[in-house]
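FAQ: What does the model actually see?

It sees only this:
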Amino acid sequence: MSWTIEGMYYENCSCDAVCPCTWSNMARAATHDYCRVALLFEVDGGSVDGVDVRGTTCVVVMETPPQMLDGNFKAGLIVGDNASDEQAEALAGVFSGASGGPMAGLAPLIGEFLGVERLPVTVNHDGKSHHIVVGDAIDYQLAMETAEDGSPVQLTNIVVHPAGPTLDIGVANGAKNSMFGFDWSGDGLSGFANRFSWAA
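And it is asked to produce this:
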């Protein structure tokens, strides 16, 4: 199977901004006794083994131990309900890591895969803020941090993150998230966003 996929990426996790797991490339422990995270990918280009996947959305939801390199992650996948069954199957291969690519780098750390769910996904934009809603499971406002000249504040050299090596920093507020048995909520939580482009 060969594939290419690109689009926009948005993240919120249960750590205080900025997530220590991320800026340390997994060397530092999470804010709490876990890190619960939703990695949302809006796909605006690409195909997977001949299947056009433009216009689809996937969300990888995970719970990790505070020290991520300890592994034993729990993970589940949400595919936007506008995707066809054929698209959903192709996307599941990419975002589970089964089809190679950046997500395959996380696969050895995942101890339990909790399956695939289908939910409506919306991302609304207001200037430098994004409102992410995934069914009744995920809801948060992501405000991006910018310098005085309007350029994004970024983390660089983030080599363990599938959407790296550069991540635009944001702060998630009003988070109310509950999916696959993982719950987290609050203000001032860690978030990131940027374009991604993958191939395998």
